[in-house]
Write a structure and sequence with these properties.
This protein is mainly β. Helix content is 0%, strand content 43%.
Length: 243
């Protein structure tokens, strides 16, 4: 468990409730190497490799020049703690509160900078791989990164417009869908007699598909994933029907 006001993390026996050891603070079980001691920290955790990491706020009041993440290795025989990694933001940030540090399965590290509205990803060697920020006045207690697939409950959307000189342009989108790589436009004489008439790769939020020949009576669109599987289909639309 973590206690920011004592600048320490505690390993507590879940059965007895007794403190097994303290890391940091005035009565640390371990002697911390120079530069390893946390101040006003958050999110103390045991990482998959057995190391201990802190989001070390360093303020407020200001103790460090900037907030950082520290990774410590504990030697239970010598009762020492060594600093094996430290991550800071290229633009010095001092987060007065909040913040977190997430080890990722491939070995990278993901950092949420708490009261400072940034979040970053680092390689195991400390190279900054990704950096972004929320709007200026926002804060985030915890920022985490996980694989995610968006599958909306609503159907894909289709809007049709006549082309100058003949033909039709279909504008297709599916708000929130993350697995779409291709669009298949269907057309036919009736809503139940549709066949493929064009395909186009997904191009951002909305993709335009142009037909230069005479338009079918009805249109619909299918959203496809990378393997060609149909993820969703719009309702049939008639050109000029107020779509």
């Amino acid at each position: 468990m973590d206690s920011r006001n004592t600048w320490a993390a505690y390993y507590v026996d879940a059965r007895t409730g007794q403190i097994v050891w303290r890391l940091g603070g005035k009565h640390s079980t371990f002697v911390l190497a120079p530069g390893a001691a946390p101040a006003w920290q958050h999110d103390a955790r045991e990482d998959p490799g057995g190391t201990i990491s802190f989001f070390d706020n360093g303020g407020t009041p200001k103790v460090h020049s900037q907030s950082r993440v520290t990774v410590l290795a504990l030697n239970t025989k010598t009762k020492t703690a060594s600093l094996i990694a430290s991550f800071v933001h290229p633009t010095p940030l001092l987060a007065a509160s909040q913040g977190d540090f997430q080890p990722l399965p491939a070995g990278d590290w993901f950092v949420g900078w708490g009261q400072e509205p940034f979040f970053s990803e680092y390689s195991p060697s400390g190279k900054l791989l990704f950096d972004a920020h929320l709007p200026a006045l926002y804060q985030s207690y915890t920022v985490l990164k996980f694989p995610w697939t968006g599958t909306p409950v609503q159907r894909p959307s289709l809007a049709l417009r006549a082309r100058s000189g003949g033909g039709t342009v279909a504008y297709v989108s599916w708000n929130g869908a993350t697995a779409v790589t291709q669009w298949r436009l269907l057309g036919g004489a009736g809503p139940h007699a549709l066949r493929p008439v064009a395909e186009a790769p997904r191009n951002g939020f909305e993709t335009a598909i142009a037909l230069s020949y005479a338009s079918p009576r009805y249109f619909a669109v299918q959203a496809l994933d990378a393997s060609g599987r149909v993820l969703g289909m719009s309702l049939p639309v008639v050109p000029g029907s107020g779509d």
